[in-house]
Amino acid sequence: MHRVVHFEICADEPERAVQFYRNVFGWEIRTWDGPSEYSIVTTGDDGTPGINGGLVHRGGSVTGQGINFIDVPSLDAALMHIADNGGDMIHPRASVPGVGHVAYCRDTEGNSFAIIETDSSAT
């Protein structure tokens, strides 16, 4: 079974959103040391149920809206399975250095989601 492993929050003013989520939920939010502007959101301890995510400027987002990332063992196989079942890809495969490979899709009801194949050697 494939699980949601990451979420992404889009913001018009990321610093304002960072302060909101820190103040309201006590989340730890730090700047990602990667090739694009992105903040890593930690929502709790590793031993507690839940997932962590990210926060990105809305203009730097593929969808411009909040999105969930679903872990898959093979991005290419998942994309074929999505298409075979009436979904479609809205942004092609892209690599996230040190993280893996992602693609953005839409289900049969118009909902956007992303799939991720973890690969720490991704460049």
Question: How would you describe this structure to a colleague?
Answer:
The structure is a single chain. The chain has 123 residues and is of the alpha+beta class. The protein has a single domain (4-118), classed as 2,3-Dihydroxybiphenyl 1,2-Dioxygenase, domain 1. Strands 2-3-4-1-5-8-7-6 form an 8-stranded mixed β-sheet, with helices on one face. Strand 7 (100-106) and strand 8 form a beta hairpin. The mean pLDDT is 94. It has helices at residues 14-25, 75-84; strands at 4-11, 28-31, 39-42, 53-57, 67-71, 88-96, 100-106, 112-118. It starts with a strand and ends in a 5-residue tail after the last strand. It contains 2 helices and 8 strands, in the order E-H-E-E-E-E-H-E-E-E. The longest helix is centred in the first third of the chain and has 12 residues, at 14-25.
As laid out across the biggest beta sheet, the strand order is: 2-3-4-1-5-8-7-6
Nearest-integer average pLDDT: 94
The percentage helix is: 10-25%
DSSP helix count?
Answer: 2
For the record, the count of structural domains works out to 1
Helix/strand structural class: alpha+beta
> What's the CATH H-level superfamily name?
2,3-Dihydroxybiphenyl 1,2-Dioxygenase, domain 1
- By CATH, the architecture is named Roll
SSE ordering:
EHEEEEHEEE
CATH class: Alpha Beta
Number of strands: 8
Sketch the major β-sheet.
8 strands, mixed
Oligomer kind: single chain
Q: Calculate Rg over CA atoms.
A: 15 Å
Low-pLDDT parts are none
CATH topology: 2,3-Dihydroxybiphenyl 1,2-Dioxygenase, domain 1
* Distance between the first and last residues' Cα: 27 Å
3D shape = globular
| Beta-strand content estimate | 35-45%
